[in-house]
C-alpha cells in the first residue's frame, strides 16, 4: 500500500480510490511515509484529512455493504442448520459455533485483501473444511476431556487462519500482526456495543408485545435472535474497518484504566492467597480459576502493550505494564508448579498436559515481553522491540493449538 501511495501522489483520483478501498491499511501505510515527503503538498493535505477528528460514525455505503449483508445471511443460515434440518441442536452447537462466525469474517478479509486466485480460495476453503469435518467426526461428548479440549481450542485455530488472511499472508511484517491484535480489541468493543443495543431492543420489543397480551419470546429468539447474534460479529468487523478512528479511541482508554486496576487487584489477591494458605496444589477448582485468571491477565498485558505502543513516550504506562507482567509471572510460576505437582502425583491426563503446555508457552512469552518492557523503561524508543516480542509467539500458540486439537485425542484414545 505504501508503494502505491507514493506512486500515485500526483494522481488524486487514484489516491482517493486507494483510501476508500481499505481505509485502515491506507492510514497505516501513510503514517510510514518517509519524512522527506512531508514537504509535498499532497502529503500535507492528506495528513490533515486523515488526522481530522471526525466524531460521526458512517456506514460508508459502498460496494462492500451488499457483500457484508450477504455474509450476515450466510452466518445466519449456518446458525439455523439445526432448525432447517434434522441435525440435533446440542450436537451441532457443541461442535460448530465457531463456524458460524469465522468463515464469514474470513470471507470479508479475503474480499478486502483481494485474495481471489483459485489457489488461495482452495487453500482457505481447505483450511476450514479439514477442522470442520474433523470436529464433527471426533468421537466423544461434553464429558470427554479430549473432545472438550478440542472444542475449546478450535476457535483459536480459526482465529489463527483469520489472522493469516488479515495480514495478507505476510508473516515477516510484525506491524501487520500488531494491527491484527489491535483490530481484535476494536472488534470486541464494537461487538459488545452491538450486542448491548440488541439486548435493549429485544427487551423493548418483547415488553411492547406483552403489554397487548402477545407472547413472542419463542418466535423472536428462534428467528430474530439467532440471525442477530450471527450477524453481530460481521457488522462489527465492517464498522471497525470503515470507521477506524472512531472505534480505535475506546480500547486505549480501556487499557489505560484496567491495567493499573488489575495490577492492584492481582497484587492484593496474591497476598490474600498466601495469607489464607489457599492450596492450588490439591484444590483442582482453585487451580482452574488460577489458570483462567492467568490467561485473562496475559491477554490484558498483550492488548495494553499494543495500545500503549501508539505513544512510545508513555513511561508511566510502560512501568505499570512491567509491574503487571512481573506479578503475572509469579502467578504463572505458581500455576505451573501446581500442575507439575499434580502430574507427578496423579499422572498425565489430557487436561493436565494441555494446561502444562499452555502455561509453559505463556511463561516463556511473558519473560520475553517483560525483559523488553524493562529495557523500554530506560529507552522509550525501544517500544518497537516490545511489539516484536508480542508477535513472535503467535505462531507458536497456533502450533500448540493444532497439537491439542489433532494430536491429544489420538494420544489419549479419545478419553
Give the secondary structure arrangement, pairings included:
Layout: H1 2-7, H2 12-21, H3 23-31, H4 41-50, H5 64-79, H6 81-84, H7 89-96, H8 98-113, H9 118-137, H10 145-166, H11 174-211, H12 217-242, H13 244-247, H14 250-276, H15 284-308, H16 315-346, H17 350-378, H18 383-392, H19 394-406, H20 408-411
Keywords:
single chain, 415 residues, mainly alpha, 3 domains, 20 helices, 0% strand
3D structure, described in words:
The chain is an all-alpha fold and 415 residues long. The chain has three domains: 2-50, no CATH class; 63-246, no CATH class; 249-411, no CATH class. The protein has 20 helices and no strands.
Order of SSEs: HHHHHHHHHHHHHHHHHHHH
Question: Which residues sit in consecutive blocks of at least 5 with pLDDT less than 50?
Answer: none
Average pLDDT, to the nearest integer?
A: 84
Tally of distinct domains: 3
Number of strands: 0
What fraction of the residues are assigned to beta strands by DSSP? under 5%
Instruction: Give helix % range.
Output: over 70%
Termini separation comes to 49 Å
Structural class: mainly alpha
| Biggest sheet architecture | none
Query: What is the general shape?
Result: globular
Number of helices: 20
Radius of gyration, Cα only, in angstroms? 24 Å
Protein name: DUF4153 domain-containing protein
Transmembrane segments: 65-85, 91-111, 118-135, 147-167, 187-214, 220-241, 253-274, 286-306, 318-341, 353-374, 394-412
Keywords: Membrane, Transmembrane, Transmembrane helix
Amino acid at each position: 500500500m505504501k508503494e502505491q501511495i507514493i506512486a500515485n501522489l500526483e494522481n488524486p483520483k487514484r489516491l482517493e480510490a486507494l483510501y476508500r478501498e481499505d481505509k485502515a491499511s491506507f492510514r497505516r501505510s501513510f503514517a510510514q511515509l518517509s519524512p522527506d515527503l512531508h514537504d509535498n503538498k499532497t502529503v500535507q493535505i492528506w495528513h490533515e484529512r486523515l488526522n481530522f477528528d471526525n466524531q460521526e460514525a458512517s456506514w460508508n455505503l459502498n460496494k462492500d455493504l451488499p457483500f457484508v449483508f450477504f455474509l450476515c445471511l450466510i452466518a445466519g443460515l449456518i446458525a439455523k442448520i439445526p432448525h432447517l434440518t434434522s441435525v440435533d441442536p446440542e450436537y451441532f452447537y457443541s461442535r460448530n459455533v465457531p463456524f458460524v462466525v469465522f468463515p464469514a469474517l474470513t470471507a470479508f478479509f479475503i474480499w478486502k485483501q483481494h485474495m481471489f486466485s483459485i489457489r488461495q480460495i482452495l487453500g482457505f476453503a481447505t483450511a476450514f473444511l479439514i477442522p470442520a469435518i474433523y470436529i464433527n467426526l471426533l468421537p466423544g461428548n461434553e464429558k470427554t476431556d479430549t473432545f472438550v479440549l478440542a472444542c475449546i481450542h478450535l476457535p483459536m485455530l480459526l482465529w489463527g487462519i483469520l489472522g493469516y488472511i488479515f495480514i495478507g499472508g505476510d508473516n515477516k511484517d510484525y506491524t501487520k500482526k500488531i494491527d491484527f491484535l489491535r483490530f481484535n480489541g476494536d472488534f470486541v468493543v464494537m461487538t459488545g456495543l452491538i450486542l448491548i443495543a440488541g439486548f435493549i431492543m429485544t427487551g423493548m420489543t418483547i415488553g411492547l408485545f406483552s403489554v397487548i397480551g402477545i407472547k413472542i419470546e419463542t418466535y423472536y429468539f428462534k428467528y430474530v435472535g439467532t440471525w442477530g447474534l450471527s450477524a453481530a460479529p460481521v457488522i462489527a468487523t465492517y464498522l471497525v474497518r470503515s470507521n477506524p478512528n472512531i472505534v480505535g479511541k475506546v480500547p486505549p482508554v480501556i487499557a489505560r484504566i484496567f491495567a493499573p486496576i488489575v495490577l492492584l487487584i492481582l497484587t492484593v489477591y496474591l497476598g490474600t492467597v498466601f495469607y489464607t494458605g489457599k492450596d492450588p496444589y490439591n484444590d483442582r477448582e482453585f487451580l482452574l480459576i488460577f489458570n483462567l485468571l492467568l490467561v485473562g491477565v496475559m491477554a490484558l498485558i498483550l492488548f495494553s502493550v499494543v495500545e500503549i505502543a501508539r505513544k512510545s513516550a508513555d513511561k508511566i504506562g510502560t512501568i505499570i505494564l512491567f509491574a503487571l507482567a512481573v506479578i503475572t509471572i509469579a502467578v504463572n510460576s505458581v500455576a505451573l508448579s501446581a500442575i507439575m505437582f499434580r502430574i507427578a502425583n496423579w499422572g498425565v491426563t489430557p487436561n493436565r498436559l494441555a494446561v502444562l503446555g499452555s502455561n509453559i508457552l505463556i511463561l516463556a512469552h511473558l519473560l520475553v515481553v517483560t525483559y523488553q518492557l524493562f529495557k523500554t523503561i530506560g529507552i522509550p524508543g525501544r517500544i518497537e522491540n516490545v511489539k516484536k516480542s508480542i508477535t513472535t509467539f503467535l505462531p507458536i500458540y497456533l502450533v500448540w493449538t493444532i497439537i491439542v486439537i489433532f494430536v491429544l485425542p489420538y494420544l489419549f484414545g479419545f478419553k
